[in-house]
Amino acid sequence: MTLLSVAGLEKSFGERRLFAIDELALAAGESYALTGENGAGKSTLLRILAGIDQPERGSGQYADRAFGWQPYPDWLRHEVIYVHQQPYLFHTGVLDNIAYGLRARGIERAERERRVAAAVAWARLEHLLDTPPQKLSGGEKQRVALARAWVLKPRVLLLDEPTANLDAESRQQTLALVREFCGPRTAAVIACHDRDVIELPHMRRLHLAGGGIEVCMENCNAV
Amino acid sequence: MELLETTRQALLLLFSADAELWGIVGVSLSVSLIAMAVALPVGVGMGYLLASVEFPGRRPLIVLIQGLLASPTVVVGLLLYLLLSRQGAFGQLQLLFTQTAMIVGQVLIALPVLIAFSLSALQSADPRARETALALGASGPRVAWTMLVEVRFALMAAVCSAFGRVVSEVGCSLMVGGNIAGVTRNIPTAIALETSKGEFAQGVALGIVLLVVALGVNSAFAFFQGGAQR
C-alpha cells in the first residue's frame, strides 16, 4: 500500500539540474536503500521529502491527501522524520532532546515521560542521560537522534547515511536500531553509498543517477 | 592629598547610607532596567526576523542598524529632545525632563545593540538546529524559541553589552532628563554636573558605584562569551 508518493519532482541549483523524478512511491512496511554517487542528490531528495528543502516543481500525496511545498503542511511534518547524517542535538539535555518532538505535538507530561523512558530503553541510553549532548561521541549522538525520531512513531523515516563516519561497533549498534525501527507501519528511506548498502528485510533499492531515479526490485545488483 | 581626602569622603558617603547618593543610584538602575526590559523582546524579535525572513530592503536595514551601533548618545538625546519639546511632534505628551523620556532614549540606544548582536548570534548558529526543529514537527514560534535557546549565551552577552551602554551613557539622559535632583538625576549626569560645581566626593562615590556595576556587567559578558564558544 502506497503511503507517500511524489510526482514531477524537479530540483536545480542555479543552472544545474540536480534531478527530475517522474514518480516515486513509498509503501508502508517497505525499506528503501537510496544509492547514488556523491552529489547525485540523495540528501536533497530526503530533505525535500521531509519539507526542509523545496523543489522547483512537484506534487505529493500522503495516504489519500495531496500536498505541496509552499508551504509544506504541518500535519505532514508529524508523519515524516528526517535524521541528518551528523545529527544535531540541542544544547539542552539528552532527555530534553528526546522529548522535543513530543512537546511540539502537545503531548501531556505524564504520557511524554512514559514515552521518553521507553525510547531511552530502546536505544540503550540510560548511562548517557547526564552527559551534555555536545560531549557524546558520533555513535552516541546518532542513537540519541534515532531515539528522538523513534519516540514520535513516524510513518515515514528518512535517514541520511546513518552509519557514515561511525566506527565498527557504533555502526553495528546503529544498524540494529535501524532494523528495529523499520516496522510494518513504516516506510523507511535510507541513503547510503553503493559499496555500503544497508541490508534490511523487504529492502528495495532506489538508485539516483543521471538526474533521475531507478526503482529496482530486491537484489537488483545490475544497478 | 586632595585626591586622598576626596576618596575618604567618597567612601564615607558610600557607607553612610547617604539618601541622596543612593537615590541617584536607584534612578540609574530603575531607568536602565526598565529600558532593557522594554528593548529586549523588541530587539531580539527584530534580530530573529532579520535572521530568518527574506524581505525587500533587508540588507540596507541591517547596514543601517549596524551603523546605529556607533550613534553618539547625545545625538539620540538631541533628536528625542526635538520630538518631545513643546513644539515637537510629541510635545503634547509633556514627557521632556521625565524618567519616561530617559527610558525612551535608552531604549533607542539599546535597540541597535540588541538587534545587531542577536542577528549575528542567530546567523552563526548551526543551520541544522533549525532544520532539526522543523523535522521534529515544531511550529514557527517553537522553532524561534528553540533557536534563541540554542544561542542563549551569545544573547546574554548582547544583553550585558546593551546594559553597559545605557547605564553609563550621559548624553541622552542629560538632554531629555535634565538632571533634576531626586527625579531624573542618574549616576552619569550627577557625575558630569555635580563635579563641575565642586562636589567631588559625591562624584567619586558615584563613579565607584558605576565602575562596580560596569565591571560586574562586563565580567558577566566575558563569562557568557566564554559559554558561547564552548
Give structural notes.
The complex is a heterodimer of chains A (223) and B (230). Chain A is an alpha/beta fold. Chain A has a domain of 146 residues: Rossmann fold (3-Layer(aba) Sandwich). Chain A contains six helices and ten strands. In chain A, the strands form two sheets. Chain A has a six-stranded mixed sheet, with helices on both faces. In chain A, strands 2-1-4-5 form a four-stranded antiparallel sheet, with no helix packed on it. Chain B has one domain: MetI-like fold, CATH 1.10.3720.10. The model of chain B has no long low-confidence stretch (mean pLDDT 92). The chains are: A alpha/beta (223), B mainly alpha (230). At the A-B interface, strand 6 and helix 3 of A face helix 6 and helix 7 of B.
Main attributes of the structure:
heterodimer; A: 223 residues; alpha/beta; Rossmann fold; 6-stranded mixed β-sheet; 4-stranded antiparallel β-sheet; 10 strands; 29% helix; B: 230 residues; mainly alpha; MetI-like fold; 11 helices; 0% strand
